[in-house]
Amino acid sequence: MQELDGFLEEHRDRFLQELCELLRIPSVSTDSRHAEDVRSAAVWVAKQLEGLSLSTKVIETEGHPIVYAESPPVEGAPTVLVYGHYDVQPPEPMDEWITPPFQPDIRDGNVYARGATDDKGQMLTHIKSAEVWMRTKGSLPLQIKYLIEGEEEVGSANVYKYLAENKEQLACDVVVISDCSQFAPGQPAITYGLKGIAYFELRVTGPRQDLHSGTFGGSVTNPVNALCRILTALVDGDGRIQIPDFYDDVVGLTDPERRQFASLPFDERGFMEKLGVSELFGESGFSTLERRWARPTCDINGIWGGYQGEGEKTVLPAKATAKFSFRLVPKQDPHKVADQLEAFIAEICPPGVEAELVRMHGACGYVTSLDSPYVTAATKAIEQGFGRSPVFIREGGSIPIVTAFQEQLDVESLLLGWGLDDDNTHSPNEKFCLADFQRGIKASTYLWRELAKISND
Amino acid sequence: MQELDGFLEEHRDRFLQELCELLRIPSVSTDSRHAEDVRSAAVWVAKQLEGLSLSTKVIETEGHPIVYAESPPVEGAPTVLVYGHYDVQPPEPMDEWITPPFQPDIRDGNVYARGATDDKGQMLTHIKSAEVWMRTKGSLPLQIKYLIEGEEEVGSANVYKYLAENKEQLACDVVVISDCSQFAPGQPAITYGLKGIAYFELRVTGPRQDLHSGTFGGSVTNPVNALCRILTALVDGDGRIQIPDFYDDVVGLTDPERRQFASLPFDERGFMEKLGVSELFGESGFSTLERRWARPTCDINGIWGGYQGEGEKTVLPAKATAKFSFRLVPKQDPHKVADQLEAFIAEICPPGVEAELVRMHGACGYVTSLDSPYVTAATKAIEQGFGRSPVFIREGGSIPIVTAFQEQLDVESLLLGWGLDDDNTHSPNEKFCLADFQRGIKASTYLWRELAKISND
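Output (structure tokens, whole complex):
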């Protein structure tokens, strides 16, 4: 392995330059104006894989393309499917970025750019680790299939379709995904549970047009007041969701899980300081880590209606809209939640306005077993890459594709987060630690060896 | 008076052309980018008054200018002060205008433009009526002072200052204002009561920056959720305000008032159809007219926070803002309401966020006596101008200057609305009925005669 370590060390700067190249492409999948940029990122990833002599294709879909590549099968060794995404979240609000989101800037040992950690930087570690093997050993110790998509930030509809229609091609023993976080700086983790999500837009309409709030106030329901009232009714003052039967399918934490979480060195004061809040918040009876990792939540993601300009406008607005989402825990079904929500809104909607609920993306949560040989292999690889044993954590974010892999391919996913909690994922000034980029490549390089030791019978 | 009627008839088209000239000036006082347009409108009004040989000046203020003009005193006749405003509300939302807001369009007997009814069209009737007198009789039958300002839509701060500092100059027996509505098409009205207002902006801030709603949901208070919760707590499901002691100073309606309102031919079904709502809404125990005219209300005028673009963004926003206002009834003090509100928000604000309440403009409500000789004079003038006796109504909108005239000059105001309820005041497609413009000029022409008959002893 010395040879591999040596190659990695020698090409460290080039690997970073290549990451910056990818980060310069504004592959914002949510915004149709960036469609060509998204394609450019796909082509960039495909060229990387082709450069390793992998059989590579850019697959057209009804949306953004999927990049697929595979190395030859290795007898006696398992097949691993690497999943990642080259698309990114919108960069807004633009004025809060210290340096422009698509001009990667290196400072304080980090690279700052939209997509740095989510997921371009993390995804690239698994391509660079294959390069390490190919350029030193001339081959990989096991078969790797790469499925790198461009619609992760918009619900992955076309990857699901592709997955359902290409099960044989994608068949594997385990999936590897790096699209989440370590537990803390210097403390790597294996994420064994994820939340699901149910995302909605709610449009409340009242009078035909904006009205004078003096002349008409007190006679018609104000759609902004109504929207706020509906949204407020969804949760109580502690953030516990008030939709009838919402908690029916929620699986509680086990005592060992709660003990494990409690044993983690979570610095609540430091966490608050980092976020700049004076108090934490959430469902009573649960610790902060429990709430973040394993309890359902409801957040309004955006709201707008009426006059938002300078000064005053005494208007009773004709309509108001909000985007909001529930984070779900394993066993909660986003469709069932949507049905429950729709019924609840129908019941509580104030008179004289219409409330239209638009169902956006939904995904189930996920929990895997800590006893699998793949988890053991990943544990060893991380020890070698990061010089420290990983802890076992869960995550509040969603990787809905994980559920799809389980359902379609009957395989588990290794969720190996190289990011950090303060990477500003989905926020201005997103970053990725350069040392973690290198450690991730090294851990991935060792992961191929550790997984290759497992029999694929 | 035949001579006056004849002149009015003859110059009908030119009067309309002049109104359109004024409507073409985008004098949006709330938006600093329109400062020069606001000035142009002031100059336009001043030229009109100068053209009638009135002693006229454009008075500079710290904000937009005030136009002041006066005719000579007439012995034995009272002095009337005409108040109006040449500034307008912002035209947004732009995409809902059928024709552009500052390109007046004549259709269906109306002129469509921002400011058509509020207040350029109504204000101009009192200048054109003076023109009728000057061009036919060579003088006015009483002294008229004109105070036409450019900051009515932003709280009139500089007019209040001017008023306080120039009481002698502005001294008068009665004020005439046309900045409200008739009761119905063909049914003119004298408005004897107005609501006050207390307008606020509430800024809720939480974490230092936008966060990933999966990773951080369930641990920090979401400022949009918090803002909705605070706003929803302000009123109950019927729109009754929940701020402690808010109703302490509310003067209830008298039985004769309630009977008078009930006798008005208010077509509730037609009102709903016009607004495009399926149900009306408001405090229980009061009729729709009572709620609109004489009960306090609370409306959110605008709200924004988080992601408002295309698609989905799973963000926990760092901040959220709303503009909202209370309509107050006579005897309620906007400063006291602001204090009560501030205390209430401090009490109910969710933990972990800061709520900053910005006090914007405030004004008291107003009720006048129906027995005054000025009301009798106005009643006669309206009968002549509109061919029908006015009804006596109140109005949900605010004309805070009315309270200031009462306090500073110790005079009552005649509120003679030439507009209609469906004029789309403050909304897209604002209009003013051309026939009402003409009838308003005629009523105003007669008003000078009727008022002149009153002794000013």
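Chain A touches chain B through 100 residues (CB under 8 Å).
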